[in-house]
Write a structure and sequence with these properties.
Helices cover 8% and strands 50% of the residues. The chain is mostly beta strands and 587 residues long. The protein is flat, with a radius of gyration of 33 Å.
Length: 587
């Protein structure tokens, strides 16, 4: 009987244990799922997008020292009666209007909006020169002497709890805020990226061509009795280096997920890789060498070289270290120089020879000094390509190089040293975002444009190059030429295919024709502009500019004395650009 009860008790206890274990497992699973969900939500809240601007709909108008707003047809939608007007986002009808010390926000119907908030202000970006100089998604408001942010629908993103709100240098979409005397960072969603715990915050200036400064981290500092002490927070908001160092800066040339930080403590420098210190603070200086991914260090009075992972590859025995390309030139005395490769292995190359790596790893550029003269050569797969004497060579793209001969003239050669563009020029450069070449001959001041295959597309004397998204404009006082991104010279009908009329010159004077080349405006003007995307063109007569519309009708008879070759018009108004790039229209 007792044995039966014991067995029954053990079964009950086993069931209880199973139930308890199941509950524990269930709780762990739920906690894990909740943790994953919370992290996902937190990540999503930290992420933000900069609102793109594809079309300008509104422009600031200035007349008689008062400001208003016009639309793309030149219609006045806000009367010019304000001391100033800011349009943070030219696609949205949100106009910040200033009257004396006060502001109000109007829409395109001249209705006041966001009336529940006081003293609404745009947030001006740092290090921006241009007309898009404000945060395009959020505005600042005040309440009881403190500040918060709202979006362009009027939604409150933060309470007015901050003593200061400003844009964060370099990082559009992020805001520097001050609370109880300490600084932190918010994004334009109102999410806290860096807690308000610091006396100073700076972006580390890490830059990517696709993302700009978005993935730059944060150098933070706190004040101690000895002064500022610096630490580092990554883009996930993690404090990876505590604020205890005299100085900190990121090696921004290393474009990797890993973050390399040089930090000084009591006058001695060390190196962090993320949270790990890989070089102790025992050096008077650490200098990163981008060309061979090494670090030149000073220890005591001697220089040496470390790998990026902290290994000594050149001992601390030298009075001077120079880096040229992948090679390290270590000097003990003026006549005693040893050469090492980037792995720290000794090399037998000539000490007067520098080897430069280029973007295409098939090639290297050798720079050699012989009897006081510097000579450049191209090497392909460790074999010399060039036989002639060049005083300068720069890799261009594909198998092409810009070279300078002994007469100081520039040309382009290929990797078989065949001349592709003759040595006539004093300037040769690649046109940005294309593979086209701009070459200038100084004697005639003639600009010539070449294709990526080194065939001449066009030439023009005293020309100015204007690089637009869809085309290249090459022009001087008398002539305009257009080049498509397909590297062909095209006429204005092809470039401005949506236009109804087109500028044309005949016998030294300008007029306009339609797509069938039928004359619309007689050839009587000294200069004209093409019809812009808003439907207006400038015409110049007797030194003064007027305005026509896309039907060839006169909007303003020539009366404006403008010192511009290509003025911009909307309706009866012409564009004026401040020195900082901000624009307004006036008449």
């Amino acid at each position: 009987m007792n044995r039966s009860k014991d067995r029954e008790g053990k079964r009950c206890m086993k069931k209880k244990n199973i139930i308890i274990i199941s509950i524990i497992i269930f709780v762990i699973v739920i906690a894990t799922i909740m943790g994953i969900l919370i992290k996902k939500i937190q990540k999503e809240m930290r992420e933000y997008k900069i609102e793109p601007i594809s079309e300008y709909k509104y422009f600031v108008l200035k007349e008689e020292n008062k400001y208003g707003v016009i639309d793309t047809k030149g219609n006045k939608i806000i009367e010019n009666k304000y001391d100033d007007i800011k349009i943070p986002n030219p696609e949205r009808d949100v106009f910040i209007c200033y009257e004396n010390e006060n502001t109000k926000v109007l829409n395109e119907k001249s209705e006041e909006i966001y009336t529940q908030y006081d003293n609404i202000q745009p947030l001006r970006l740092k290090n921006i020169s241009g007309d898009l100089m404000y945060e395009k998604s959020v505005l600042k408001y005040s309440e009881n002497g403190k500040y918060g942010i709202i979006d362009f629908t009027g939604k409150e993103l933060t309470k007015a709890i901050y003593e200061e709100i400003d844009t964060f240098q370099f990082k559009e979409g992020e805001l520097l805020v001050k609370k109880e005397g300490k600084y932190g960072i918010l994004n334009i969603k109102g999410t806290t990226l860096v807690k308000t715990e610091y006396d100073k915050i700076e972006a580390d200036k890490f830059y990517e061509s696709e993302n700009g400064y978005k993935n730059a981290g944060y150098i933070v500092s706190k004040t101690t009795e000895e002064g500022y002490r610096y630490g580092y927070i990554d883009i996930e908001g993690k404090l990876i280096i505590k604020p205890q160092y005299n100085d900190i800066y990121r090696i921004v040339e290393i474009d990797e997920k890993e973050i390399y930080i040089i930090a000084a403590e009591n006058g001695k420098y060390g190196l962090f890789k993320n949270t790990n210190k890989i070089i102790d603070n025992q050096y008077q200086s650490l200098i990163y060498n981008e060309s061979n991914n090494t670090i030149t260090a000073l220890k005591g009075k001697k220089y040496g070289v470390l790998s990026i992972e902290g290994e000594i590859i050149v001992p601390f025995e030298y009075n001077q270290i120079d880096i040229s390309g992948e090679y390290i030139y270590a000097t003990k005395t003026d006549k005693d120089t040893e050469i090492f490769n980037s792995n720290g292995e000794k090399s037998n190359i000539d000490k007067n020879l520098a080897i430069i790596n280029v973007e295409n790893t098939d090639y290297k550029i050798y720079i050699q000094t012989i009897e006081g003269k510097t000579r450049y050569s191209i090497y392909k797969n460790n074999e010399t390509v060039t036989k002639n004497q060049y005083t300068y060579i720069k890799y261009l793209y594909d198998n092409y190089f810009i070279a300078c001969n002994e007469n100081g003239r520039l040309g382009i050669i290929d990797d078989k040293e065949k001349t592709k563009i003759e040595f006539y020029y004093h300037s040769i450069q690649q046109i940005e975002n294309t593979k086209m070449i701009e070459a200038i001959r100084d004697k005639e001041n003639k600009v010539q444009i070449y294709s990526k295959d080194m065939n001449m597309i066009c030439e023009l004397e005293n020309a100015i190059i204007e690089n637009n998204k869809e085309y290249i404009k090459v022009y001087n006082k008398n002539e305009i030429k257009y080049i498509s991104k397909e590297e062909k010279e095209v006429d204005n009908k092809e470039v401005f295919s949506n236009n109804k009329i087109f500028a044309k010159k005949l016998n030294g004077l300008w007029g306009f024709v339609d797509k069938e080349n039928k004359n619309i405006i007689n050839y009587k003007y000294e200069k004209v502009t093409e019809v812009n995307k808003y439907g207006f063109a400038g015409v110049k007569l007797d030194g003064k500019w007027g305005v026509i519309n896309d039907k060839g009708q006169i909007i303003v008879e020539p009366k404006y004395e403008l010192n511009e070759n290509d003025p911009m018009f909307i309706g009866e108004y012409y564009q004026v650009i401040y020195g900082n790039g901000e624009i307004y229209y006036t008449k």
